[in-house]
Amino acid sequence: MGRSEWVDTIGWQQMLDEGVATVIDVRTPPEIKRRELDPEATVPREIQRIHLPVEDVDHEPFWQRNAPYPMHPGAYADTMETFGDRVATAITTVRDSWTDGGTVLHCTAGRDRTGLVLGLLLQLPDIPGGPADWAEHERVYASGAYGINEHHRTSPVPHPYESYLPPADFEKELADRLSSYRRFLRQWPGDRVAELLDRHGL
């Protein structure tokens, strides 16, 4: 999911009706704000909201390396090298929240930070249903990519760095992203993800 501020009262109620108990936001603090065209919304008190930024907005070298912001799976290795502890916390928080009901994880676009955390989580061998195969990873990442591309098509406010890609261009871009995503996941098999969590006491 992308920005939670895009969700109106009806959408929040639909999430509750579908069994969502927890919404986890991995954006940095400056990103969390209501914008002019965002709907006014009432969030059901039954839904727990957790903020766990996977990046430190004050880490200048990281942002210089990934200016204007990390927007591609090619940046995942740098994110893990720099903020592996934060990503580990997000992974375990999502995993542990499953005992309370459905969980929604989101960033701003619902594509890259969301894809990073979910990709590593779905590598773990002890999750319900076992680790994901590549087809499942591909579906998860692609759903976020399709979603934000469609948002760019319909949004009345243009994005400063990204724009809508027509189908042929989008499929080419998606293929590049998925190729990079697959290389990253091969470098992070389930046992390595588990070691990361153990190393941070999670």
Characterise the protein shown here.
By secondary structure, the protein is mainly alpha-helical. The chain has a single domain, classed as Alpha-Beta Complex (Protein-Tyrosine Phosphatase, Chain A), CATH 3.90.190. It is built from seven helices and three strands. It has helices spanning 9-17, 60-65, 76-97, 112-121, 134-154, 167-187, 190-199; strands spanning 20-25, 48-51, 102-106. It has a three-stranded parallel β-sheet. Helix 3 crosses helix 4 (112-121). It is globular, with a radius of gyration of 17 Å. It starts with 8 loop residues before the first helix and ends with a helix. The model has no long low-confidence stretch (mean pLDDT 96). InterPro entries: Prot-tyrosine_phosphatase-like (IPR029021), Tyr/Ser_Pase_IphP-type (IPR026893), Tyr_Pase_AS (IPR016130), Tyr_Pase_dom (IPR000387). This is Tyrosine specific protein phosphatases domain-containing protein. Residues 85-122 form the Tyrosine specific protein phosphatases domain.
Write the layout of secondary structure elements.
Blueprint: H1 9-17, E1 20-25, E2 48-51, H2 60-65, H3 76-97, E3 102-106, H4 112-121, H5 134-154, H6 167-187, H7 190-199
Parallel strand pairs: 1-2, 1-3
Keywords:
single chain, 202 residues, Protein-Tyrosine Phosphatase, Chain A, Tyr/Ser_Pase_IphP-type, mainly alpha, three-stranded parallel sheet, 7% strand
